[in-house]
């Protein structure tokens, strides 16, 4: 919801297209990952280690959000861009928290899924 709100602030304020594109892209990717986990498609599609893909998404999104939102806050041509920049920085913090939690959850040493031996 925060990514969607950031996107709407950038679009409504007439910000540069790059600001809105980044926020919109993060909104879509977040919705796709949410649907992937809610519909349990990650268990059906084992060709990719989904938590690691989610970790990469969080790290890359945090880097892009850092640059774009700092530019939006520094330039702040109107209040909508400033609000979008501040909300984007809050989203940046949430992406970092998500990356840290995923790093703690991911363990490459233990086996995954049903192929794990019974104890």
Structure, briefly:
With 119 residues, the protein is an all-alpha fold. 76% of the residues lie in helices and 0% in strands.
Provide the descriptors you would attach to this structure in a database record:
119 residues; mainly alpha; 2 domains; Marvel; CKLF factor; transmembrane; MARVEL-CKLF_proteins
Rounded to the nearest angstrom, the distance between the terminal CA atoms is: 41 Å
Number of helices: 5
The major sheet is characterized as: none
Residue share in helices? over 70%
Strand proportion, as a percent range, falls in: under 5%
Tell me the radius of gyration.
17 Å
Structural class: mainly alpha
Overall pLDDT, averaged?
86
Any idea what the shape is?
elongated
- Total strands: the figure is 0
Q: What is the string of SSEs from the N terminus onward?
A: HHHHH
Number of domains: 2
Residue runs with pLDDT of under 50 for 5 or more positions? none
Domain MARVEL: 1-107
Main location: membrane
InterPro entries: Marvel, MARVEL-CKLF_proteins
Transmembrane segments: 24-43, 55-75, 81-103
Question: Can you give a write-up of this model?
Answer:
The chain is mainly alpha-helical. It has two domains: 1-76; 78-109. The protein contains five helices and no strands. Helix 2 runs antiparallel to helix 4 (50-75). The model has no long low-confidence stretch (mean pLDDT 86).
């Amino acid at each position: 919801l925060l990514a969607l709100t950031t996107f709407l602030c950038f679009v409504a304020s007439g910000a540069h297209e790059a600001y809105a594109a980044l926020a919109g892209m993060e909104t879509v990717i977040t919705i796709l990952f949410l649907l992937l986990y809610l519909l349990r498609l990650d268990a059906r599609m084992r060709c990719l280690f989904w938590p690691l893909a989610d970790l990469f998404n969080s790290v890359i999104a945090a880097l892009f959000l850092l640059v774009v939102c700092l530019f939006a806050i520094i330039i702040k041509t109107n209040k909508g861009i400033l609000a979008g920049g501040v909300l984007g920085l809050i989203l940046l913090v949430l992406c970092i928290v998500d990356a840290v939690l995923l790093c703690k959850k991911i363990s490459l040493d233990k086996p995954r899924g049903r192929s794990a031996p019974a104890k």
